[in-house]
Amino acid sequence: MLKSSDTSQRDLARLLGVTEQAVSNKMRGKARFSGEELVMMAVFFDVSLDYLTGISNYPSKIQR
Length: 64
Hints:
Blueprint: H1 9-16, H2 20-27, H3 35-45, H4 49-52
């Protein structure tokens, strides 16, 4: 994720329209991201859903 090192939990919370605590809980596995949230993050970070969810090691939407 190219933007990940520059993106804070606060930024992610704003993007998703949730609280920072909600993002923290989701990142620690205490709650789950919704499908809509996953799509929003994939678009924001310009990666595939497979990469975002750990199914693929290739961040590109098109595997080379």
